[in-house]
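Try it yourself: sequence plus zinc ion, in.
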Amino acid sequence: MNIKKNNSIKYMIEEIRAKNKISDYLSSKGILPVSQHEHRLAFRCPIHNDANPSFMVFLDDNTHENYFCFGCLKSGDIISLYAELEKISWKQSIRILGKDIIVTDSHRLDVTVEQLKNELKNISLDKSKNPFGEISAQIATMGFAFMKAVHWDEQERQLIEKLYKKIDSCILGWDIDGLNKIYDFLSGNNQEHRNAFECRIEGWQKKQKEIDNNKLLLRQQQLEENDNE
Ligand SMILES: [Zn+2]
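Structure, out:
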């Protein structure tokens, strides 16, 4: 048995994180950063089909690297990313990345994976670790609700893409004020106007009604023409 009895699993997790940099892992897969900043790297997201560099790897944490994608909202550490990209469980990910410090106690590993999941769930919302995460997550949530409300309308989707590009440039430029302004505009937070998404939904519904009415008129006309024949 290759267990170091003194090693708690928590210690092992820290070792895995310290020895396996997210940036090294991605570069081993041929995924290179689109841009490099003082405390973070920006990639096209390896998890979702990403036209923009929405995937941020934060280097400014002393203990380990974190990632957050404002496109698909996935966040985590090397263990969760490895599991995601290699399509394996977190438990398998720990076993492979920590192969030199193998733990055979399956139950303890299960408990640790659960703790890890809870811990990582909060990363994207932790402003001190990622000042952009919370705002991005809220905008993305509003955007998703909006797209559902307009039945994934292609024209509206293109509009959302444009919006996300603007958000991208704020994130890449480390422009927190710009991102806040976009958020205030979208959510109607500054009280000068209503929630931009709600206005847009109303407009879309009105347009749909017109389209339906026109279809109805057309059908009536066709029926009348048939009668006249
Ligand atoms: Zn993503």
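One thing you can check immediately is this: The beta strands are 35-36, 40-43, 55-58, 66-69, 75-76.
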